[in-house]
Amino acid sequence: MDNIIYLDNAATTKTSKEVLSAMLPYFSEHYGNASTIYRLGGESKKAVAEARERIAESLGADSSEIYFTGGGSEADNWALIAAAEAYGDKGKHIITSAIEHHAVLHTCEYLEKRGFEVTYVDVDENGIIKTQELEKAVRPDTILISVMFANNEIGTLQPIAEIGEIARKKGILFHTDAVQAYGHVPVNVDELNIDMLSASAHKLHGPKGVGFLYIRKGVKIRSFIHGGAQERGRRAGTENVPGIAGFGAAVKAAFSEMEESNAKIQRLRNYLIEKMLKEVPHCRLNGDRKKRLPNNANFSFDFIEGESLLMMLDMKGICASSGSACTSGSLDPSHVLLAIGLPHERAHGSLRLTLSRENTMEEMDYVVEAVKDIVYRLRQMSPLYEDFLKSHK
Ligand SMILES: *Cc1c(COP(=O)(O)O)cnc(C)c1O
Q: What distance in angstroms lies between residue 68's CA and the mean position of ligand 1's atoms?
C-alpha cells in the first residue's frame, strides 16, 4: 500500500511510529495486570498513571478527573446516560445540536425513549450553532447541554466558550464531544467551563479502541461499566494498558508539535481548497471558511454522486470520504449537510478530505487533478448535467 494518498484523517489516523513503540513493551515484557501488587503489575500501573497525568495536564485538569474508556463513542454514551440518570430527578430536558456525531444523537434518541426530552438546536448555513437559540431553549428543567467542539464532517469549530458561559450562568451541566478537536487545537476545561469532555486516541495518531471521559470534580455521575474497582470504580474492566500507553505517547507528540504541525497542514489545506474551487466547475466549500479545523476540507459538486466519486478516487489510490464514515453504506444524505441547508442532490455530491502532517503539496496537486478528471467523466454520464447544459444554451 505504498501509493496510497490518505485524506481521511477524520475517520481515523495512522498510528505513529513513536506511539507503536510506546505500546509494544506492554504486550511483551510488561504484561502484568495494573491492579496487582507485585512489581510486574506496577509497570502497567505506572504507564496508566503517566498517561492519565499527561492528558490531565493537556486539558488543565486534575488526573483524578480523567476516566479511560474504550473510545469516543463510549465516552459520549457514558456522559449523556449517566448525567441523565444522576440529574433526572431535577429535570428531564437535554439540549444538543443538530450536527452532533451519531454517538451523541443516537444516545439522545435512546434517552427520548426513556422519558427525556431533547432540543436539537440549529446551525447557520456555515455550520455554526446558533447560541442565541440555544440560550432561548434553556428551561427550568434543563439538566444537560451537549455540543461538539468541532464537527467531524465539515470541521466547524463551535463557540464552546460562549456555550460554556451560558451553561455556567444557568447552572447546567456542559458536555462536549471533543473527539475531532482534542490534540488538534488547544482545549482548556476551566477557561471554557466544560464539565465533561470526550476524546479518542485514534483521531490523533494513537491506537483504536481507547478514549477518555473528563468529568469535573463535584459532578454527580454514575458508574458506566459495573465490576472491578478500575477507574475509581466508575468504569470497571482490566485496563487496556498498551492502548493507554499509546494514547499517552500520542498526546505528548500532538501537544508538543501542535503549532508547527497545524501551520503545515493549514497551508496544504488552504492550497487544496483554493485550487479545487478554481479548477473544478460547480464546486462549493461546505462549512465556515475560517472557523474550522486546520485539516478539514469539505466540497460539494453539482450533478454527481459522492459514492461514485469515492470509488473512482480509490482506483487512483486516494482515500477520502463522502460525509461521514458512519453514513456511507446508507443512502440517506448526511444530517450535517442537510442541517446547513444543502438540498439532497448537493449533499449526495459531497467529498470530505481531511489531512495530516504526513501529506505533501504534490499530493494536493494530484488530488485536484484526479477530482477534476473524475467529476468531468461522471458529469458526462449525468442526465441532470445534460438538462442543465440544455437549459443554459
Ligand atoms: C470518531 C468520532 C467519535 C467516535 O469515536 P470512536 O473512538 O471511534 O468511538 C465520536 N465523535 C466524533 C466527533 C468523532 O469524530
A: 15
* Ligand 1 atom showing the smallest separation from residue 103 Cα: 10
C-alpha cell belonging to residue 50: 503517566
* Residues designated catalytic: 326
Stated pTM of the model: 0.96
Question: Is residue 179 within 6 Å of ligand 1 at its C-beta?
Answer: yes
* d(CA 366, ligand 1 centre) in Å: 29
Grid cell 459522492 is found at: 306
Q: How many CB atoms lie within 10 A of CB 226?
A: 11
pLDDT digits (tens, 9 = 90+) for 264-318: 999 999 999 999 999 999 999 999 999 999 999 999 999 999 999 999 999 999 9
Q: Is 129 in the pocket of ligand 1 (CB under 6 A)?
A: no
* CA 181/CA 175 separation, integer angstroms: 14
| Residues pairing with 352 in the sheet | 298, 321
- What does the block give as the cell for 308? 461514485
Half-sphere exposure of 169 (CA within 13 A, CB side): 9
Q: Cα separation of 18 and 29, whole Å?
A: 18
